[in-house]
Amino acid sequence: MLRFILMMICSFVLACSKNEPSEKSKWVKVNSTNIGTSYAHIATIHKDGNKAKISNLIDFKTPVTVAGDTFLSMISQWEYDCQEKLERMLYFVYYSENMGKGHVVYLDSHLGNKWESVSSDMDSNILFKIACSKQ
Q1: Is the CB of residue 55 less than 8 Å from the CB of residue 73?
Q2: Which residue intervals of 1-135 are DSSP H helices?
């Protein structure tokens, strides 16, 4: 039941944020590899003191299968401690189609995950800089 409630909340929040009419509601390309393209959703940035949250979309070039679930895109929300250079994933949602469209294939909430050093991969560093530089 909790999983269903979380899925409905995440779907609603993500659907609302994707339907904003402003120019700021668009996904901004962060990085592209042979696996897919990563985007940041600038309108989702929320800062509170030294902490910042941002949504990330990974759009895969070919279908990905994890534990029997096949998907073409993933939207996640990250929280950063801008002063300590720490990160944690709050949740992620797998979608059946590209660019966060189609039906929800799987979702997981990582609320309360332990903080870790910002990953050395390019996407994490760019998302950290974008989220933490917002005024």
Answers
A1: no
A2: 2-18, 122-133
**Distance, CA of 113 to CA of 35 (rounded, Å):** 26
The whole-model pTM stands at 0.79
Nearest to 93 by CA among 70, 111, 73, 75: 75
> In whole angstroms, what is the distance from residue 102 CA to residue 113 CA?
28
Tokens of residue 85, six digits: 């250079």
Dist CA 42 CA 107 (whole Å): 22
Residue 50, both tokens? 């030294």
pLDDT in tens, 64-84: 999 899 999 999 999 999 999
Q: What is the dihedral of CA 57, 33, 80, 67, to 10 degrees?
A: 60
- Res. 111 pLDDT band, cuts 50 70 90: low
